Amino acid sequence: MTKRLTLADLLEGLGARRPAGLAQPVMPVIDSRKAGLGTVFFAFQGEKVDGHDFVGDALRHGALAAVVERPVAVEAPVLDLTAGTSPVDLATPLVIRVPSVLQALQGAAAYWRRQLHPRVIGITGSVGKTTTKEAVARVLARRYQTARSEGSYNNELGLPLTLLALTDACQRVVLEMGMYVRGDIRALAGIAQPHVGVVTNVEPVHAERAGSLEAIALGKRELVEALPPAPAGVAVLNHDDPRVRAMAEATAARVFYYGLTQEADLWADEVESLGLEGIRVRLHYGKEKVHLRVPLLGQHSVHTVLRAAAVGLIEGVDWQEISEGLRTPGAQLRLVTVPGLRDSLIIDDTYNASPPSTLAALNLLHDLDGRKIAVLGDMLELGPYEEEGHRKVGGRAAGVVHTLVTVGPRARWIAEEARASGLPAAQVHALDDAPTAIALLQALIQPGDVVLVKGSRAMKMETIVAALTQPGEETPTWGLRWS
Predict the structure, then answer these.
(1) Could you tell me if 305 and 364 lie in one domain?
(2) CB contact at 8 A, 294 and 326
(3) Is 35 helix (H, G, I), strand (E, B) or coil?
(4) What is the CATH number of the domain that holds 84?
Protein backbone atom coordinates (compact mmCIF):
# COMPACT_ATOMS: atom_id res chain seq x y z
CA MET A 1 0.00 0.00 0.00
CA THR A 2 1.28 3.47 -0.88
CA LYS A 3 2.41 5.45 2.13
CA ARG A 4 0.82 8.88 2.27
CA LEU A 5 0.99 11.68 4.80
CA THR A 6 -1.60 11.11 7.54
CA LEU A 7 -2.87 13.39 10.24
CA ALA A 8 -0.87 11.34 12.74
CA ASP A 9 2.30 11.89 10.67
CA LEU A 10 1.59 15.59 10.45
CA LEU A 11 1.07 15.93 14.18
CA GLU A 12 4.31 14.10 14.87
CA GLY A 13 6.05 16.40 12.39
CA LEU A 14 4.65 19.37 14.28
CA GLY A 15 6.13 18.07 17.53
CA ALA A 16 3.14 16.34 19.12
CA ARG A 17 3.19 12.81 20.51
CA ARG A 18 2.07 10.52 17.72
CA PRO A 19 -1.65 9.97 18.42
CA ALA A 20 -3.51 6.76 17.75
CA GLY A 21 -6.65 6.69 15.61
CA LEU A 22 -5.78 9.63 13.34
CA ALA A 23 -4.52 7.69 10.35
CA GLN A 24 -6.57 9.61 7.78
CA PRO A 25 -4.49 10.69 4.73
CA VAL A 26 -4.26 14.49 4.55
CA MET A 27 -3.25 17.17 2.06
CA PRO A 28 -2.07 20.55 3.40
CA VAL A 29 -3.56 23.71 1.87
CA ILE A 30 -2.95 27.41 2.50
CA ASP A 31 -6.05 28.70 0.70
CA SER A 32 -9.32 28.07 2.54
CA ARG A 33 -11.13 27.94 -0.83
CA LYS A 34 -9.19 24.74 -1.57
CA ALA A 35 -10.06 23.17 1.76
CA GLY A 36 -12.10 20.01 1.52
CA LEU A 37 -12.33 16.46 2.74
CA GLY A 38 -8.92 15.21 3.83
CA THR A 39 -7.17 18.59 3.93
CA VAL A 40 -5.33 20.44 6.68
CA PHE A 41 -5.55 24.22 6.50
CA PHE A 42 -2.48 26.28 7.47
CA ALA A 43 -3.70 29.75 8.50
CA PHE A 44 -1.09 32.21 7.25
CA GLN A 45 -1.15 35.94 7.86
CA GLY A 46 -0.81 37.48 4.39
CA GLU A 47 -0.29 41.07 3.32
CA LYS A 48 -4.01 41.61 2.77
CA VAL A 49 -5.75 38.54 4.20
CA ASP A 50 -5.35 36.71 7.50
CA GLY A 51 -5.95 33.00 7.18
CA HIS A 52 -7.12 32.87 10.81
CA ASP A 53 -10.30 34.60 9.69
CA PHE A 54 -11.12 31.63 7.44
CA VAL A 55 -10.47 28.71 9.77
CA GLY A 56 -14.21 28.19 10.29
CA ASP A 57 -14.79 28.11 6.52
CA ALA A 58 -12.02 25.55 6.06
CA LEU A 59 -13.41 23.24 8.75
CA ARG A 60 -16.96 23.55 7.41
CA HIS A 61 -15.70 22.50 3.98
CA GLY A 62 -14.33 19.28 5.40
CA ALA A 63 -10.79 20.07 6.56
CA LEU A 64 -9.68 17.61 9.23
CA ALA A 65 -7.62 20.25 11.01
CA ALA A 66 -6.41 23.83 10.95
CA VAL A 67 -2.97 24.98 12.05
CA VAL A 68 -3.02 28.40 13.72
CA GLU A 69 -0.76 30.60 15.84
CA ARG A 70 -3.41 32.53 17.77
CA PRO A 71 -6.83 31.65 19.21
CA VAL A 72 -9.72 31.38 16.76
CA ALA A 73 -13.45 31.36 17.47
CA VAL A 74 -14.48 27.95 16.18
CA GLU A 75 -16.17 24.95 17.79
CA ALA A 76 -13.39 22.37 17.71
CA PRO A 77 -10.98 20.78 20.17
CA VAL A 78 -7.65 22.61 20.43
CA LEU A 79 -4.25 20.93 20.54
CA ASP A 80 -2.02 23.67 21.95
CA LEU A 81 1.57 22.89 21.04
CA THR A 82 2.70 26.29 22.28
CA ALA A 83 2.11 24.97 25.79
CA GLY A 84 3.59 21.56 25.10
CA THR A 85 0.29 19.77 25.63
CA SER A 86 -0.61 16.66 23.66
CA PRO A 87 -3.97 15.15 24.68
CA VAL A 88 -4.31 11.40 24.34
CA ASP A 89 -7.80 11.53 22.80
CA LEU A 90 -8.20 13.86 19.85
CA ALA A 91 -11.19 14.30 17.56
CA THR A 92 -11.51 15.92 14.17
CA PRO A 93 -12.04 18.56 13.06
CA LEU A 94 -9.16 19.81 15.16
CA VAL A 95 -7.42 23.14 15.74
CA ILE A 96 -3.65 22.87 16.22
CA ARG A 97 -2.02 25.91 17.76
CA VAL A 98 1.71 26.40 17.14
CA PRO A 99 4.20 29.21 17.83
CA SER A 100 4.66 29.87 14.08
CA VAL A 101 2.54 28.55 11.23
CA LEU A 102 5.44 28.96 8.76
CA GLN A 103 7.87 27.08 10.97
CA ALA A 104 5.24 24.41 11.56
CA LEU A 105 4.74 23.90 7.83
CA GLN A 106 8.48 23.74 7.19
CA GLY A 107 9.13 21.46 10.16
CA ALA A 108 6.42 19.05 9.08
CA ALA A 109 7.81 19.01 5.53
CA ALA A 110 11.33 18.30 6.78
CA TYR A 111 9.98 15.50 8.98
CA TRP A 112 8.02 13.92 6.10
CA ARG A 113 11.00 14.23 3.76
CA ARG A 114 13.02 12.16 6.26
CA GLN A 115 10.38 9.42 6.23
CA LEU A 116 10.69 8.98 2.46
CA HIS A 117 13.71 8.10 0.36
CA PRO A 118 13.54 9.62 -3.10
CA ARG A 119 16.50 11.19 -4.88
CA VAL A 120 15.95 14.94 -4.73
CA ILE A 121 17.11 17.31 -7.48
CA GLY A 122 17.24 21.00 -6.55
CA ILE A 123 17.37 23.69 -9.23
CA THR A 124 18.30 27.32 -8.74
CA GLY A 125 19.64 30.24 -10.77
CA SER A 126 18.58 33.69 -11.87
CA VAL A 127 16.83 32.70 -15.11
CA GLY A 128 15.45 29.43 -16.41
CA LYS A 129 14.64 27.61 -13.16
CA THR A 130 11.04 26.72 -14.00
CA THR A 131 11.82 25.67 -17.56
CA THR A 132 14.72 23.53 -16.37
CA LYS A 133 12.61 21.98 -13.61
CA GLU A 134 9.96 20.94 -16.10
CA ALA A 135 12.46 19.57 -18.63
CA VAL A 136 14.38 17.63 -15.96
CA ALA A 137 11.16 16.17 -14.53
CA ARG A 138 10.03 14.96 -17.94
CA VAL A 139 13.36 13.34 -18.66
CA LEU A 140 13.41 11.54 -15.31
CA ALA A 141 9.76 10.50 -15.68
CA ARG A 142 10.70 8.30 -18.63
CA ARG A 143 12.27 5.89 -16.14
CA TYR A 144 11.21 6.83 -12.58
CA GLN A 145 8.10 7.78 -10.63
CA THR A 146 8.84 11.50 -10.57
CA ALA A 147 7.28 14.41 -8.70
CA ARG A 148 8.02 18.09 -9.20
CA SER A 149 7.07 21.39 -7.64
CA GLU A 150 4.00 22.84 -9.33
CA GLY A 151 4.21 26.12 -11.20
CA SER A 152 6.69 28.40 -9.47
CA TYR A 153 6.32 26.78 -6.03
CA ASN A 154 9.93 27.64 -5.23
CA ASN A 155 9.80 29.47 -1.90
CA GLU A 156 9.41 28.93 1.84
CA LEU A 157 5.75 27.99 1.35
CA GLY A 158 5.67 26.23 -2.00
CA LEU A 159 8.56 23.85 -1.44
CA PRO A 160 7.21 22.44 1.86
CA LEU A 161 3.77 21.97 0.31
CA THR A 162 5.36 19.99 -2.53
CA LEU A 163 7.20 17.73 -0.09
CA LEU A 164 4.11 17.12 2.04
CA ALA A 165 2.26 15.88 -1.05
CA LEU A 166 4.82 13.12 -1.70
CA THR A 167 4.19 9.42 -1.22
CA ASP A 168 6.66 6.57 -0.84
CA ALA A 169 6.00 5.62 -4.46
CA CYS A 170 8.02 8.65 -5.56
CA GLN A 171 11.54 7.82 -6.73
CA ARG A 172 12.72 11.25 -7.91
CA VAL A 173 11.66 14.75 -6.84
CA VAL A 174 12.56 17.87 -8.84
CA LEU A 175 12.35 21.09 -6.83
CA GLU A 176 12.79 24.68 -7.94
CA MET A 177 14.53 26.86 -5.33
CA GLY A 178 14.20 30.64 -5.51
CA MET A 179 15.83 33.36 -3.45
CA TYR A 180 15.54 37.01 -2.64
CA VAL A 181 18.37 37.27 -0.11
CA ARG A 182 21.20 35.10 1.16
CA GLY A 183 20.02 32.34 3.44
CA ASP A 184 16.84 31.60 1.51
CA ILE A 185 18.25 28.64 -0.43
CA ARG A 186 20.14 27.32 2.59
CA ALA A 187 16.82 27.12 4.43
CA LEU A 188 15.06 25.39 1.52
CA ALA A 189 17.90 22.90 1.09
CA GLY A 190 17.77 22.14 4.80
CA ILE A 191 14.16 21.06 4.35
CA ALA A 192 14.51 19.24 1.03
CA GLN A 193 17.94 17.60 1.52
CA PRO A 194 18.82 17.50 -2.20
CA HIS A 195 21.25 14.98 -3.69
CA VAL A 196 21.71 16.83 -7.00
CA GLY A 197 21.98 20.61 -7.30
CA VAL A 198 21.62 22.38 -10.67
CA VAL A 199 22.64 26.03 -11.05
CA THR A 200 21.54 27.78 -14.23
CA ASN A 201 23.22 31.21 -14.13
CA VAL A 202 23.83 34.33 -12.06
CA GLU A 203 22.16 37.50 -13.38
CA PRO A 204 20.90 40.77 -11.83
CA VAL A 205 17.39 39.41 -11.19
CA HIS A 206 15.87 40.52 -7.85
CA ALA A 207 19.05 42.55 -7.33
CA GLU A 208 16.94 45.24 -5.69
CA ARG A 209 16.55 42.91 -2.71
CA ALA A 210 19.64 40.72 -2.95
CA GLY A 211 22.11 43.53 -3.58
CA SER A 212 25.09 42.89 -5.84
CA LEU A 213 25.77 40.14 -8.35
CA GLU A 214 28.29 38.77 -5.88
CA ALA A 215 25.57 38.51 -3.23
CA ILE A 216 23.29 36.74 -5.70
CA ALA A 217 26.07 34.27 -6.55
CA LEU A 218 26.68 33.57 -2.86
CA GLY A 219 22.97 32.97 -2.36
CA LYS A 220 22.75 30.54 -5.30
CA ARG A 221 25.92 28.80 -4.09
CA GLU A 222 24.09 27.71 -0.95
CA LEU A 223 22.52 24.89 -2.95
CA VAL A 224 25.81 23.23 -3.86
CA GLU A 225 27.13 23.83 -0.34
CA ALA A 226 24.22 21.80 1.02
CA LEU A 227 24.80 18.74 -1.17
CA PRO A 228 26.12 15.52 0.34
CA PRO A 229 29.68 14.45 -0.54
CA ALA A 230 30.39 12.41 -3.65
CA PRO A 231 29.35 9.93 -4.84
CA ALA A 232 25.78 10.59 -3.62
CA GLY A 233 25.97 14.34 -4.18
CA VAL A 234 26.39 15.91 -7.63
CA ALA A 235 26.63 19.63 -8.45
CA VAL A 236 25.55 20.38 -12.03
CA LEU A 237 27.19 23.69 -12.93
CA ASN A 238 27.07 25.99 -15.96
CA HIS A 239 30.64 26.10 -17.25
CA ASP A 240 29.79 29.09 -19.45
CA ASP A 241 29.00 31.33 -16.45
CA PRO A 242 32.19 32.19 -14.52
CA ARG A 243 30.30 32.82 -11.27
CA VAL A 244 28.58 29.45 -11.49
CA ARG A 245 31.75 27.65 -12.58
CA ALA A 246 33.52 28.97 -9.47
CA MET A 247 30.93 27.28 -7.22
CA ALA A 248 32.83 24.01 -7.68
CA GLU A 249 35.17 25.17 -4.91
CA ALA A 250 32.28 25.34 -2.42
CA THR A 251 30.97 21.78 -2.57
CA ALA A 252 32.02 18.32 -1.44
CA ALA A 253 29.79 16.83 -4.13
CA ARG A 254 31.00 15.58 -7.49
CA VAL A 255 31.02 18.40 -10.04
CA PHE A 256 29.41 17.89 -13.45
CA TYR A 257 29.91 20.79 -15.87
CA TYR A 258 27.66 21.54 -18.85
CA GLY A 259 28.17 24.23 -21.47
CA LEU A 260 29.16 25.17 -25.00
CA THR A 261 32.88 24.40 -24.77
CA GLN A 262 34.79 21.14 -24.82
CA GLU A 263 36.00 21.74 -21.25
CA ALA A 264 32.53 20.79 -19.98
CA ASP A 265 31.57 17.19 -19.20
CA LEU A 266 28.50 17.56 -21.42
CA TRP A 267 28.72 20.15 -24.18
CA ALA A 268 26.82 21.22 -27.25
CA ASP A 269 27.50 22.59 -30.71
CA GLU A 270 25.73 22.86 -34.07
CA VAL A 271 22.86 24.73 -32.41
CA GLU A 272 20.24 25.75 -34.97
CA SER A 273 17.04 27.69 -34.34
CA LEU A 274 13.99 26.40 -36.19
CA GLY A 275 11.85 29.39 -35.24
CA LEU A 276 8.60 28.31 -33.63
CA GLU A 277 9.46 24.68 -34.41
CA GLY A 278 12.20 24.54 -31.77
CA ILE A 279 15.95 23.91 -32.07
CA ARG A 280 18.39 21.32 -33.36
CA VAL A 281 21.55 20.60 -31.38
CA ARG A 282 24.42 18.13 -31.18
CA LEU A 283 25.47 16.99 -27.70
CA HIS A 284 28.87 15.55 -26.76
CA TYR A 285 29.38 13.29 -23.74
CA GLY A 286 32.71 11.51 -23.65
CA LYS A 287 32.98 9.77 -26.99
CA GLU A 288 29.23 9.90 -27.60
CA LYS A 289 27.64 12.36 -30.03
CA VAL A 290 23.86 12.74 -29.98
CA HIS A 291 21.71 14.82 -32.34
CA LEU A 292 18.45 16.13 -30.87
CA ARG A 293 15.53 18.17 -32.12
CA VAL A 294 13.44 19.59 -29.29
CA PRO A 295 10.46 22.00 -29.12
CA LEU A 296 12.23 24.60 -27.00
CA LEU A 297 12.41 28.00 -28.62
CA GLY A 298 15.52 30.07 -29.28
CA GLN A 299 19.17 29.08 -29.47
CA HIS A 300 19.72 29.92 -25.79
CA SER A 301 17.44 26.96 -24.97
CA VAL A 302 20.42 24.71 -25.59
CA HIS A 303 21.34 25.29 -21.93
CA THR A 304 17.96 23.91 -20.84
CA VAL A 305 18.61 20.84 -23.00
CA LEU A 306 22.07 20.44 -21.47
CA ARG A 307 20.79 20.71 -17.91
CA ALA A 308 18.00 18.18 -18.43
CA ALA A 309 20.32 15.77 -20.23
CA ALA A 310 22.98 16.16 -17.53
CA VAL A 311 20.58 15.22 -14.74
CA GLY A 312 19.26 12.34 -16.81
CA LEU A 313 22.75 10.95 -17.34
CA ILE A 314 23.62 11.35 -13.67
CA GLU A 315 20.46 9.48 -12.69
CA GLY A 316 20.99 6.62 -15.13
CA VAL A 317 18.54 7.63 -17.88
CA ASP A 318 19.59 6.58 -21.39
CA TRP A 319 19.73 8.81 -24.46
CA GLN A 320 16.50 7.46 -25.93
CA GLU A 321 14.64 8.33 -22.74
CA ILE A 322 16.32 11.74 -22.57
CA SER A 323 15.25 12.48 -26.14
CA GLU A 324 11.68 11.34 -25.48
CA GLY A 325 11.48 13.40 -22.31
CA LEU A 326 12.68 16.56 -24.03
CA ARG A 327 10.09 16.10 -26.78
CA THR A 328 7.21 16.01 -24.30
CA PRO A 329 7.25 19.41 -22.58
CA GLY A 330 4.61 20.40 -20.05
CA ALA A 331 2.49 23.47 -19.46
CA GLN A 332 5.34 25.48 -17.92
CA LEU A 333 7.27 25.19 -21.18
CA ARG A 334 4.55 26.84 -23.18
CA LEU A 335 5.10 30.09 -24.96
CA VAL A 336 1.72 31.08 -26.35
CA THR A 337 1.30 32.38 -29.85
CA VAL A 338 -2.10 33.69 -30.81
CA PRO A 339 -3.56 35.04 -34.05
CA GLY A 340 -3.57 38.81 -33.86
CA LEU A 341 -5.34 41.64 -35.58
CA ARG A 342 -5.15 41.70 -39.40
CA ASP A 343 -3.51 38.26 -39.69
CA SER A 344 -0.60 39.17 -37.43
CA LEU A 345 1.01 36.79 -34.95
CA ILE A 346 1.21 37.73 -31.26
CA ILE A 347 3.95 36.13 -29.14
CA ASP A 348 2.69 36.22 -25.56
CA ASP A 349 5.72 36.12 -23.24
CA THR A 350 4.12 38.18 -20.48
CA TYR A 351 4.80 35.79 -17.58
CA ASN A 352 7.68 37.96 -16.35
CA ALA A 353 10.78 39.74 -17.58
CA SER A 354 14.44 40.31 -16.82
CA PRO A 355 17.26 41.53 -19.08
CA PRO A 356 18.51 38.00 -19.94
CA SER A 357 15.03 36.64 -20.63
CA THR A 358 14.06 39.66 -22.72
CA LEU A 359 17.26 39.40 -24.75
CA ALA A 360 16.42 35.74 -25.33
CA ALA A 361 12.92 36.66 -26.50
CA LEU A 362 14.34 39.24 -28.89
CA ASN A 363 16.74 36.64 -30.27
CA LEU A 364 13.80 34.36 -30.97
CA LEU A 365 11.93 37.22 -32.64
CA HIS A 366 14.99 37.78 -34.83
CA ASP A 367 14.71 34.19 -36.13
CA LEU A 368 11.11 34.59 -37.31
CA ASP A 369 9.78 35.83 -40.65
CA GLY A 370 7.68 38.99 -40.98
CA ARG A 371 7.86 42.59 -39.90
CA LYS A 372 8.85 42.54 -36.24
CA ILE A 373 7.32 44.65 -33.46
CA ALA A 374 8.47 44.46 -29.84
CA VAL A 375 6.25 45.74 -27.03
CA LEU A 376 8.43 45.85 -23.92
CA GLY A 377 7.44 46.93 -20.44
CA ASP A 378 9.42 47.84 -17.34
CA MET A 379 11.68 45.15 -15.87
CA LEU A 380 11.41 45.43 -12.10
CA GLU A 381 13.59 44.57 -9.08
CA LEU A 382 16.91 45.11 -10.87
CA GLY A 383 18.30 47.39 -8.18
CA PRO A 384 21.63 49.02 -9.15
CA TYR A 385 21.53 47.25 -12.54
CA GLU A 386 18.21 48.84 -13.52
CA GLU A 387 19.37 51.35 -16.14
CA GLU A 388 22.15 49.12 -17.47
CA GLY A 389 19.76 46.20 -17.93
CA HIS A 390 17.14 48.21 -19.79
CA ARG A 391 19.75 49.80 -22.05
CA LYS A 392 21.20 46.39 -22.99
CA VAL A 393 17.73 45.36 -24.11
CA GLY A 394 17.34 48.57 -26.11
CA GLY A 395 20.61 48.01 -27.92
CA ARG A 396 19.57 44.51 -28.95
CA ALA A 397 16.06 45.61 -29.94
CA ALA A 398 17.55 48.09 -32.39
CA GLY A 399 19.10 45.22 -34.32
CA VAL A 400 15.96 43.10 -34.38
CA VAL A 401 12.75 45.08 -34.69
CA HIS A 402 11.11 47.35 -37.20
CA THR A 403 8.99 49.02 -34.52
CA LEU A 404 9.60 49.30 -30.78
CA VAL A 405 6.89 50.20 -28.26
CA THR A 406 7.90 50.60 -24.62
CA VAL A 407 5.56 50.79 -21.65
CA GLY A 408 6.47 52.40 -18.35
CA PRO A 409 9.06 54.87 -17.00
CA ARG A 410 11.97 52.42 -16.80
CA ALA A 411 11.34 51.09 -20.29
CA ARG A 412 12.09 54.59 -21.61
CA TRP A 413 15.75 53.61 -21.23
CA ILE A 414 15.05 50.80 -23.72
CA ALA A 415 13.63 53.34 -26.15
CA GLU A 416 16.52 55.79 -25.67
CA GLU A 417 19.16 53.12 -26.24
CA ALA A 418 17.36 51.77 -29.31
CA ARG A 419 17.37 55.24 -30.88
CA ALA A 420 21.03 55.71 -29.96
CA SER A 421 21.81 52.33 -31.55
CA GLY A 422 20.32 53.31 -34.89
CA LEU A 423 16.60 52.48 -34.79
CA PRO A 424 14.85 55.44 -36.49
CA ALA A 425 13.14 57.70 -33.96
CA ALA A 426 9.85 57.51 -35.89
CA GLN A 427 9.79 53.75 -35.22
CA VAL A 428 10.30 54.07 -31.46
CA HIS A 429 7.33 54.85 -29.21
CA ALA A 430 7.93 55.37 -25.48
CA LEU A 431 4.55 55.26 -23.73
CA ASP A 432 3.38 55.50 -20.14
CA ASP A 433 0.78 52.75 -19.87
CA ALA A 434 -0.86 49.74 -21.49
CA PRO A 435 -4.07 51.47 -22.71
CA THR A 436 -2.02 53.99 -24.69
CA ALA A 437 0.08 51.17 -26.14
CA ILE A 438 -3.05 49.25 -27.15
CA ALA A 439 -4.48 52.23 -29.03
CA LEU A 440 -1.21 52.75 -30.91
CA LEU A 441 -0.73 49.09 -31.78
CA GLN A 442 -4.27 48.67 -33.02
CA ALA A 443 -3.46 51.34 -35.60
CA LEU A 444 0.10 50.17 -36.40
CA ILE A 445 -0.26 46.41 -36.88
CA GLN A 446 -0.23 45.19 -40.48
CA PRO A 447 -0.85 41.75 -42.04
CA GLY A 448 2.08 39.40 -41.46
CA ASP A 449 3.51 41.30 -38.48
CA VAL A 450 5.04 39.34 -35.61
CA VAL A 451 4.47 41.11 -32.29
CA LEU A 452 6.41 40.19 -29.15
CA VAL A 453 4.83 41.34 -25.86
CA LYS A 454 6.93 41.09 -22.69
CA GLY A 455 7.38 42.86 -19.35
CA SER A 456 7.45 42.29 -15.61
CA ARG A 457 4.31 40.77 -14.15
CA ALA A 458 3.32 43.97 -12.36
CA MET A 459 3.12 45.79 -15.71
CA LYS A 460 0.06 43.70 -16.71
CA MET A 461 1.28 43.28 -20.27
CA GLU A 462 -1.23 40.47 -20.72
CA THR A 463 -3.91 43.16 -21.17
CA ILE A 464 -2.10 44.22 -24.34
CA VAL A 465 -2.11 40.64 -25.65
CA ALA A 466 -5.82 40.33 -24.93
CA ALA A 467 -6.59 43.54 -26.81
CA LEU A 468 -4.55 42.52 -29.87
CA THR A 469 -5.80 38.94 -30.13
CA GLN A 470 -8.16 37.98 -32.91
CA PRO A 471 -11.45 37.23 -31.07
CA GLY A 472 -12.28 33.57 -30.53
CA GLU A 473 -8.93 32.16 -31.58
CA GLU A 474 -5.92 30.84 -29.73
CA THR A 475 -3.19 28.51 -30.95
CA PRO A 476 -0.74 27.58 -28.21
CA THR A 477 2.67 26.53 -29.43
CA TRP A 478 5.01 24.35 -27.38
CA GLY A 479 8.08 26.31 -26.53
CA LEU A 480 9.76 28.13 -23.72
CA ARG A 481 8.40 30.57 -21.21
CA TRP A 482 11.23 32.64 -19.82
CA SER A 483 11.20 34.19 -16.35
Answers:
(1) no
(2) yes
(3) coil
(4) 3.40.1390.10
* Domain co-membership, 278 together with 418: no
User: Do 147 and 249 belong to one domain?
Assistant: yes
Domain extent for 100: 7-105
Q: What per-residue confidence (pLDDT) applies to 329?
A: 57
HSE, side-chain direction, 13 A CA sphere, residue 164: 30
User: Could you tell me if 163 and 120 are in contact, meaning their C-beta atoms sit under 8 angstroms apart?
Assistant: no
d(CA 269, CA 425): 38
Alpha-carbon span 108 to 360, nearest angstrom:
40
- Please indicate, yes or no, whether residues 352 and 470 belong to a single structural domain of this protein: yes
CATH of the domain at 364: 3.90.190.20
Give kind and range of the element (H or E) at residue 393: helix 386-398
CA gap 39, 53 in Å, rounded: 17
Distance CA 216, CA 181 (A): 7
Distance, in Å, from the CA atom of 466 to the CA atom of 451, rounded to the nearest integer, reads 13
154/215 Cα distance (integer angstroms): 19
Count up the domains in the chain and report the number.
3
Q: Tell me if 28 sits within 8 A of 51, measured CB to CB.
A: no
Residue 424, CB half-sphere, CA atoms under 13 Å: how many?
4
Euclidean distance between CA atoms 427 and 401, whole angstroms: 9
- Identify each DSSP E strand in 46-93 by its residue range: 65-68, 78-80
Q: Give average pLDDT by consecutive 10-residue segment, the chain, 483 residues.
A: 92 89 92 93 90 95 95 91 72 92 96 96 93 95 94 83 96 94 94 98 74 89 98 97 97 98 97 90 97 90 96 98 86 68 93 88 92 96 90 96 97 97 97 96 96 91 92 44 35
| Angle at CA of residue 168, ends 167 and 174, nearest 5° | 70
